[in-house]
Amino acid sequence: NKQVILKEYVSGLPKESDLQVTTGSIKLKIPEGCNGILVKNLYLSCDPYIRTRMKNLQLKGAHVDSFQPGSPISGYGVAKVLESEHPNFKKGDLIWGITDWEEYSLITEPETLFKIQDKDMPLSYYTGILGMPGVTAYAGFFEICSPKKGEYVFVSAASGAVGQLVGQFAKLSGCYVVGSAGSKEKVDLLKNKFGFDEAFNYKEEQDLNAALQRYFPEGIDIYFENVGGKMLDAVLLNMRIRGRIAVCGMISQYNLDQPEGVYYLANIILKRIRMEGFLVFDYYHLYPKYLEMVLPKIREGKIVYVEDKAEGLESGPAALTGLFVGRNVGKQVVVVADE
Ligand code: NDP
Fold this sequence. Notes:
Blueprint: E1 2-6, E2 19-23, E3 37-45, H1 49-53, E4 74-84, E5 94-100, E6 104-107, E7 114-115, H2 132-144, E8 152-155, H3 163-172, E9 176-181, H4 184-192, E10 198-201, H5 208-215, E11 220-225, H6 230-238, E12 239-247, H7 267-270, E13 274-277, H8 287-299, E14 307-311, H9 316-322, E15 331-335
Parallel strand pairs: 8-9, 8-11, 9-10, 11-12, 12-13, 14-15
Antiparallel strand pairs: 1-2, 3-4, 3-6, 3-15, 4-5, 5-7
Residues 47-49, 133, 136, 157, 159-163, 181-183, 186, 226-227, 248-252, 278-280, 323-324, 326, 328, 331 line the site of NADPH dihydro-nicotinamide-adenine-dinucleotide phosphate.
Domain Alcohol dehydrogenase-like C-terminal: 161-293
Keywords: Oxidoreductase
Protein name: Enoyl reductase (ER) domain-containing protein
């Protein structure tokens, strides 16, 4: 049973060498008295929050805890049930949810897993558009941002797992949407594949405030925040009265020991801005409603999804750490095995 192990707690930019692929043994049998399931992992999802668990966390009131050095890391994945002692699952079922980064896993509390019903979709989509990032984009945009037709929307990290969906939801809602991303290839994708009205490469802008003024001469109604730091400051300067900011993530801050300051928060008062952080875990009750909306749109080609697939568990460390230097183009997935 190949596994991806965390070697030591990480500080700074995570490196491939912070993780190690080892081969351990596993009994392909559920232990006596355990009502869990044994699964074969097919796809693993590279998500920025995994970085948070790679450090020695002492966060009060947070949902997450640290990984144990020497043990496999875990995250969302798609897997096939090989054996089940749990009444809700049977051999052959396909599931998505939290699993370890390894070939085969024993999941002792399968209650939190989702059973995959719609099998005409690519299974890897259940790590992205049909999984956690999909619910994140849906809840963050529709529940937190309350979009109205004609509003001006800005999305950062716009070509990624979450951002590419937010942009498409904004277009379907009749909004004007601009995205930022870190390369020409990504900017082209935003404009030509996902239908953003405009897009720019934030790495080429000397002055983010000036860039936003250029794309939003009348200001921003909705900001879907994925990056934090300097971008957030520039956005605060460009928000319109009664604008909304959904704080989904702040990837530019995850590897810093000392977070950057945000200077223009007082705009929240003057412009009566509503800024709200959220975690996808609080919104999984919306999953059936979300599937009802998104599945027909995927089938009709009205929503598209770009994935970046790394082949084999061995490629896991590079794929995961690549998120923090923008190596992924679209949703980063690790393909562990074929069905
Ligand atoms: P992505 O697929 O967008 O991958 C991460 C991307 O972030 C990279 O490709 C890179 O793109 C960009 N990036 C990396 N470092 C920086 C930096 N220093 N400054 C600016 N951009 C950077 O990830 P996801 O779509 O999965 O996640 C997007 C955000 O949503 C993250 O902040 C994540 O933590 C958050 N999130 C929050 C959830 C919640 O429940 N609140 C749930 C899921 C995700 P580029 O080339 O454009 O720089």
